[in-house]
Structure formats: structure tokens, C-alpha cells
Specification:
The complex is a heterodimer of chains A (347) and B (345). Chain A is globular. Chain A is an alpha/beta fold. In chain A, strand 11 and strand 12 form a beta hairpin. Chain B contains 13 helices and twelve strands. The longest helix of chain B has 18 residues. The chains are: A alpha/beta (347), B alpha/beta (345).
């Protein structure tokens, strides 16, 4: 496929491919015998945009809401409030019905085995989506075979195999081929390489880079591995307890982080230098429970920069540089935090 | 004689494995001739990818692999005592008392229907015959030792009531309950979040130094290995292909597989967005071993000989061994790569 103009591209290059606006999802749970109602604030006011042709990474620890965000975007679960726009159109509106949105957005999951039907050959799995969307069977199978070849699996050897006859890396290639079968514009990769061995992970990352170029794709890349994110992403959003705490160009955020949590995540990575091992853990304890998140800045109980203003005020996600935004009172002019930069005088 | 009574003056290594082979179902040779010596108070990391035989090797030390399906050959000695010759009874004494193990997923390793405190006191009473009160006091001490907050209250918690990091600390406390001399850790931080993983790695390092534990640490993560281990042994297809100090293995590797592992890391990419160096192909089928070096089909340095004869381990530096016919060329290739990286940076 060439980089020719895509007729589905309505908004032009400046229009973000996906706009996520004040997205909220709370899961109700019952607590204790009395059945006292509580909610898990899985995603609690998330805003970001994915530009056309870029790779946006979302990083964060378990329970931070990164996978829930992905599922909300895909419409696999319904959001409580907020808005999702795809190429400027509201998803599920008359202009962009769910069905046509789904044909343009596909997802690859972490567990390569459970996301394939064990009773279908890989060729049938890949051809299934296009057939549902009205492509004749023969044509769909033909395309499945060419996609298999494209992801590095010789069709004559692999097309008729079942998922259990493949290795983890091969299965993930099949999942990627299946995601591409509908010629999507956005591909959501939820920990797609996390379960793979390192040498296989590198192969799949290279494949993702090539496919992005060949098929004009935009990626939302969710991962907990900062090395991988730094390698593959143009921009990165850091999530903590259901909120984005920092977002910006990957090189900036991961080289000179503004949020203390991002800094702690980075210095938690094991060093590869035997002469320079980590001496002190940057954070104590586990990430807190999203059922009852701390007041004000949610990171304050674990933060080294905590001051009395932090539990009392919710920090807004504000710009600290071009395209770089951070939600931290220590970085916000006039917040009352002793490290906050001086307030800018209005020109 | 009891299996657990390790003579304190003995100078035997903590664990000594010679020519270990483990075959499952008469076909799959998961471990194929492993030699490994763990000195007292030392920490060795066994690293490798899935199916490399690292966990199987670890389990063999306590003979935890299912007896009826597994054929074990070679010798395993713990503090000079022959584990292969032990009776069931002697094995029971060995497990938990002389040698303890921690696992990747504490939720599966701990019993869900008993409190963690009960599980620890049970182990102490069983092995050391202490009273309930004494055992409970020891359990509390252990919880403080592994830095579980409000330890008194946590002793009465069930595993599902704890967070992932806390459960892993509880499992470490359980493993240390009977003051073992050898600690076997099977991917203990793989399932944890990054900020928790580093806490557990540092705790293990600290405990190892303070209690003089001899530790074998199985992981697939080179970074985690460097953080805790003095020595690293790299496994591929059931064999140790390279071993040496952490510095030797990470900074001057001499086996093409180790070099591949180091180069394919995403942080090793020369230029952002450029392609990563990869190891082509996939690991061999262990049920159908071919002659020669098992890594040869994927190796960038392979010559004819590699496909025909299994390379012996040669010494490439003091205490640094590599099982490769072309270990000198491999070392040179790595140095060249380092220079190329330095030139770009």
C-alpha cells in the first residue's frame, strides 16, 4: 500500500486521529458484608490526543488505568462520561457509526494465545474480520495469506496451522496480521510485546516499525517497559491512578522528566552496569488502591517533593514546555509549593 | 545423620552441580549437561529465555520435578551432601530447612485458606519443633526483617488481602523461616511493577549479604541479574553457554548468544526508530536435538564445525567461561560493536 491519500482521511493532517476528552470510567464494587457501595476509579478524567502517523505510548504500573483507557477507546466497555473523537467525528454518532469506527481501529493484546480462536486455523482467523465486513471469502483468504507473508510467516507452512502449533512470537505475528486485515488507521497495542522473550520482542518491534511505514498506521502503544517505549514512541503519556500525570515527546519525558513519579519510574529500572548498581529504591510501598485514591495530588503519599499544598490541591495538567505538560504543583507557577516557578507576568 | 545438619566448618560449596541432565517423558532433554558451582555466600543469576532450562535446573536442586516423568542424571550436592541419593525423608528435611525457594507468583505459592502468619509458624514448628508462641515471635521478627508495614496485623492477613509486593515479601519471610543456607529464587520479581521490583531486588541483596545466604536467582532480565548477582550464568537450550562475574558477562561477553541478548535490548538501539539488532530464528526443539552447538542455526559467527561438534566450555578469562568454538571472534565482534556505538554517540 502506498502513502497515497486515504479517502477516509477527512480532517486532514492537522486533525488529531483520536481525541480523548475528560474520559471517566468508574467500576462499581460492593465492599464488605453490609454491601457498602464503592467505586474503582479506573479512569478518572483522562485527556490526550493521538496525532496522525505518530506512536503515542502510555506507561504506568498495574491499576493505573492504561488498559481500561484502551478498552474505552475501542468501545469494548462504555465510558461513564467524556468524549471520544476519531478524525474529528464523535465515535458512535451518525457521521461515524460504531461499525465503521471499528473497521478503522484494531487492537492487539498481551496474551497471544487467548486472543485467537483455538478451533480456527490462523488463516481463517485473519480472514474472519474482513468477511464480517463484507469481503468475499476467497478474497479475504488471499489477503490473509499475503498478510501472513508480510509479518514473516511463510503462508504455505503456517496458513493451515492452529494457534497451539505456533510459538508465542509466531502467534503474536498472527494477531498483528489479523489486526491489519481490515486496513485500520489506528492500532492499539496493549502490552503486545510484554509476554515475549527479549530476542523475539526485538523481532516483533522491528516488524511493528516496518508495518507502520508500509500501511500508514498510527499506534497507541501501551506498555510498562520504558526501554521499549523510548525506542518505539514519538510521544509518551505517563498515567498514575487513573490520570495522566505527564505527557510530551518521548525523548523529553524520558530523558528529563518533570513529574516526580516519572522520575521514580525511570530510576526504578535496573541498571545494566555492575559497577553502578541501584542503592536506594526510589519509591517505597506499592501503588495505592484506585478505590479510594489519595486526596489532592494522588501521588503525594509516595512523593519526595510532598508539601502541605499537595494533599489539598488537585494539580492541573499544564504546559512546562512545547508539547510537554505535567500535573505537579511543584512545577506550576503560583501553586504555593516552595519549588514552584515564579508566576509569569501577563504580557 | 540428618540431611539438614550442614557442618558449619565444611568448606564444600553451597551447591555443586556436575553434568546435570534432565529429560522429560523420555524425549525432551530440557537440561543437557549443566555444571554449576555456587560458593558460600555467593549470588549467582541463571539467565535465559523461556525453555532454556533455567527453572528446571533450579527445581532439580530440591528434586521438585515430578519423579515419574523425569529422568535426572549427573550429580547435585548441597553443602557436600548428595541430593540424588537422599530418601524421601531426607528430602523433606532438605526442603525448606537447608534450601528454601521463592517463586514468581506468590498468590499461587501461598495457601489461600490459611493466614500467612499461620503458614510461617507451621513451617517453623514442623522443622524446629518450637512452641506456637515462640514460632509466632519468630514470624513477627521475620515480617519486620522483610519490612512489611504493621507486621503484627499482617500476620493475620490472608494472601489475597495483600498487595503484590507485600505478598512477595511475605513469601521471602516464609522462605527464611527456618534459616536456610541456600535460597533459590525463581523469577521473584517478574510479576511485579517496576517501582516494586527494585524494592524487592534490593531487599534480596541486603538479606543475602546480612544472612550470608547463598542464592541462585533465575531470571530472564539481565538488568535484574546485574542488580543482585555476583556471577551470571547464561543458559541456552539446556546448557550454560557462558558464565563469569556480572562484569565479565555484561561488559565483555564471549558467546554470540550473550552478545545477541545484550544487543537486542531496546535501550541498546543506536538511533531511535532505527531497527533493533535481533537474533534471527527461534530456539531449537528440545525433543529433536541436532548435532553440534544448539545456537549454531541462529549464530552470526557459525562455521561448519559449529553444526557438527558441540563446543566445550573454554576459559576466556579468570573464572570466565564460554562454550563456543569462536569465542575469541565473538569477543572481538562485541568490542567492535561498542566502538561503533561510541562513535555514533
Amino acid at each position: 500500500m502506498s502513502a497515497a491519500i486515504d479517502i477516509r482521511d477527512r480532517g486532514g493532517p492537522a486533525q488529531p486521529l483520536l481525541t480523548v476528552d475528560k474520559l471517566i470510567k468508574h467500576f462499581p464494587i460492593k465492599k464488605g458484608l453490609g454491601g457498602k457501595k464503592a467505586v474503582v476509579r479506573a479512569v478518572d478524567g483522562v485527556d490526550f490526543e493521538i496525532l496522525k502517523g505518530e506512536t503515542l505510548g502510555i506507561v504506568g504500573e498495574s491499576g493505573c488505568g492504561k488498559s481500561t483507557t484502551a478498552k474505552l477507546i475501542m468501545g469494548l466497555i462504555e465510558h461513564d462520561s467524556g468524549q471520544l473523537l476519531f478524525d474529528g467525528e464523535k465515535i458512535g454518532s451518525r457521521a461515524l457509526p460504531m461499525r465503521s469506527f471499528r473497521a478503522q481501529t484494531q487492537m492487539v493484546f498481551q496474551d497471544s494465545y487467548s486472543s485467537l480462536n483455538p478451533r480456527m486455523t490462523v488463516e481463517a482467523s485473519i480472514a474472519f474480520g474482513p468477511q464480517v465486513h463484507g469481503v468475499p471469502k476467497r478474497q479475504a483468504i488471499e489477503r490473509a495469506r499475503s498478510l501472513l507473508a508480510r509479518v514473516g510467516l511463510e503462508p504455505t507452512r503456517f496458513a493451515a496451522r492452529y494457534p497451539h502449533e505456533l510459538s508465542g512470537g509466531q502467534r503474536q505475528r498472527v494477531n498483528i496480521a489479523r489486526a491489519l486485515a481490515l486496513e485500520p488507521r489506528l492500532v492499539v497495542l496493549d502490552e503486545a510485546v510484554s509476554a515475549l522473550d527479549k530476542s523475539v520482542e526485538a523481532q516483533v518491534l522491528n516488524l511493528l516499525l516496518d508495518l507502520k511505514q508500509d500501511f500508514n498506521l498510527t499506534y497507541l502503544f501501551i506498555s510498562h517497559d520504558l526501554n521499549v517505549v523510548r525506542f518505539i514512541c514519538d510521544r509518551v503519556a505517563v498515567m498514575y491512578l487513573g490520570q495522566v500525570v505527564e505527557i510530551g515527546p518521548a525523548d523529553t519525558v524520558l530523558a528529563s522528566p518533570s513529574h516526580p513519579y516519572t522520575a521514580a519510574l525511570l530510576s526504578s529500572m535496573p541498571s545494566l552496569d555492575p559497577d553502578n548498581r541501584t542503592e536506594v529504591a526510589p519509591l517505597a510501598g506499592d501503588p495505592p488502591n484506585p478505590i479510594d485514591p489519595p486526596s489532592g495530588c494522588r501521588f503525594h503519599p509516595r512523593c519526595s517533593l510532598m508539601e502541605p499544598v499537595c494533599p489539598a490541591n488537585v494539580p492541573p495538567l499544564d504546559g512546562v514546555g512545547e508539547l510537554h505538560r505535567v500535573a505537579c504543583l511543584a512545577r506550576q507557577p503560583g501553586s504555593g509549593h516552595s519549588l514552584a516557578p515564579a508566576q509569569q507576568v501577563a504580557a | 545423620m540428618t540431611a539438614s545438619a550442614i557442618p558449619p566448618t565444611s568448606s564444600d560449596p553451597a551447591v555443586e552441580i556436575r553434568g546435570l541432565s534432565v529429560t522429560f517423558g523420555g524425549k525432551v532433554r530440557a537440561v543437557d549437561g549443566v555444571d554449576l558451582v555456587l560458593g558460600r555466600g555467593q549470588a549467582v543469576a541463571l539467565i535465559g529465555e523461556s525453555g532454556s532450562g533455567k527453572s528446571v535446573t533450579l527445581r532439580a536442586i530440591m528434586r521438585l520435578n515430578p519423579e515419574n516423568k523425569t529422568k535426572i542424571e549427573g550429580s547435585i550436592r548441597v553443602a557436600g551432601q548428595d541430593v540424588m541419593a537422599m530418601s524421601k525423608r531426607e528430602l523433606t528435611r532438605l526442603r525448606g530447612r537447608a534450601v528454601a525457594m521463592i517463586f514468581q507468583e506468590p498468590l499461587l505459592a501461598l495457601d489461600p485458606v490459611y493466614t500467612v502468619g499461620r503458614q510461617i509458624t507451621e513451617a517453623i514448628r514442623r522443622h524446629e519443633g518450637l512452641s506456637e508462641t515462640q514460632a509466632r515471635a519468630r514470624a513477627l521478627e521475620l515480617f519486620e526483617r522483610v519490612r512489611i508495614p504493621s507486621p503484627q496485623r499482617r500476620l493475620d492477613a490472608y494472601p489475597h488481602e495483600m498487595s503484590g509486593g507485600m505478598r512477595q515479601r511475605a513469601m521471602i519471610a516464609l522462605a527464611l523461616a527456618c534459616r536456610p543456607k541456600v535460597l533459590l529464587a525463581d523469577e521473584p520479581t517478574t510479576a511485579l511493577d517496576a517501582t516494586v521490583q527494585i524494592q524487592i531486588l534490593l531487599l534480596l541483596r541486603e538479606l543475602q549479604a546480612e544472612l550470608g545466604l547463598s542464592t541462585i536467582f533465575v531470571t530472564h532480565d539481565l538488568g535484574a541479574a546485574v542488580e543482585v548477582a555476583d556471577r551470571i550464568a547464561v543458559m541456552y537450550a539446556g546448557r550454560i553457554v557462558e558464565s563469569g562475574t556480572a562484569r565479565q558477562v555484561v561488559l565483555s561477553p564471549n558467546h554470540p548468544y550473550t552478545i545477541g541478548l545484550l544487543s537486542s535490548r531496546a535501550d541498546g538501539a543506536l538511533v531511535k526508530g532505527s531497527r533493533l539488532e535481533t537474533i534471527p530464528g527461534s530456539p531449537p526443539d528440545l525433543a529433536n536435538r541436532k548435532p553440534g552447538c544448539p545456537f549454531a542455526p541462529r549464530c552470526f559467527l557459525a562455521i561448519d564445525r559449529c553444526h557438527k561438534e558441540v563446543p566445550p566450555t573454554v576459559e576466556v578469562g579468570p573464572g570466565h567461561g564460554a562454550a563456543c568454538w569462536r569465542s575469541d571472534e565473538a569477543g572481538a565482534a562485541f568490542r567492535e560493536r561498542l566502538e561503533a556505538v561510541a562513535a555514533v554517540a
